[in-house]
C-alpha cells in the first residue's frame, strides 16, 4: 500500500488512495517547500499508515476516514503521528490518541483534551 506526497501537485496518496488533501506550503513547480519538509511529512504519513494497518480502530478514528471526509491542507505537528490542518474555514489538529497520552487527558505528549478516552485519530479545532 503506497503512502506518499505527490510532488507534482502536493496532494497526498495515503494507503494507496489519492486524497484531496494538500501539503502546506507546497506550490507545484516552485522551491517554496523544501524537500526535507516533504520527506519529514512523508515519513510521518508512512508511520501513520503502518499503525493504521496494524491496529483496529473504529471507522471514525481512522486517519484515512478523516482525510476522505475533509478538503484540507496539512502541516506538521509536534505530537506523534499528528498534524495541523486548515480548510473549510477551520484550523485545528488531527491528533493521534492512545495509551501514550492516556486517550487525550490533556497531558504530554499531545496536550489535547477529549471528553472520554480515544484510541486513534481525532479532529480538534
Walk me through what this model shows:
By secondary structure, the chain is of the alpha+beta class. It has one domain (4-124). The protein contains 2 helices and 7 strands. The chain has helices at residues 35-54, 63-69; strands at 4-5, 11-14, 17-23, 72-76, 83-87, 90-97, 120-124. It has a 7-stranded mixed sheet. Strand 4 and strand 5 form a beta hairpin. The chain is globular and about 40 Å long. The protein starts with a strand and ends with a strand. The mean pLDDT is 85.
Query: How many distinct domains?
Result: 1
Q: What's the main sheet like? A: 7 strands, mixed
The SSE string, one letter per element, is: EEEHHEEEE
Oligomer kind: single chain
Structural class: alpha+beta
Supply Rg: 14 Å
The unreliable regions are none
Strand order within the widest sheet?
Answer: 1-2-3-4-5-6-7
* Strand segment count: 7
Overall pLDDT metric: 85
What spatial form do the alpha-carbon principal axes imply?
globular
Estimate the helix proportion, in percent: 10-25%
Percent of residues in β-strands = 25-35%
DSSP summary: helix tally = 2
Quote the distance from N terminus to C terminus.
30 Å
Amino acid at each position: 500500500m503506497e503512502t506518499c506526497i505527490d510532488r507534482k501537485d502536493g496532494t497526498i496518496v495515503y494507503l494507496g488512495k489519492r486524497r484531496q488533501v494538500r501539503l502546506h506550503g507546497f506550490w507545484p513547480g516552485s522551491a517554496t517547500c523544501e524537500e526535507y519538509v516533504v520527506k519529514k511529512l512523508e515519513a510521518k504519513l508512512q508511520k501513520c499508515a503502518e499503525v493504521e494497518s496494524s491496529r483496529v480502530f473504529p471507522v471514525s478514528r481512522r486517519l484515512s476516514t478523516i482525510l476522505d471526509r475533509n478538503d484540507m491542507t496539512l502541516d506538521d505537528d509536534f505530537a506523534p503521528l499528528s498534524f495541523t490542518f486548515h480548510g473549510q474555514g477551520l484550523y485545528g489538529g488531527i491528533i493521534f490518541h492512545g495509551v501514550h497520552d492516556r486517550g487525550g487527558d490533556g497531558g504530554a505528549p499531545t496536550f489535547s483534551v477529549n471528553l472520554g478516552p480515544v484510541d486513534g485519530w481525532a479532529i480538534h479545532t
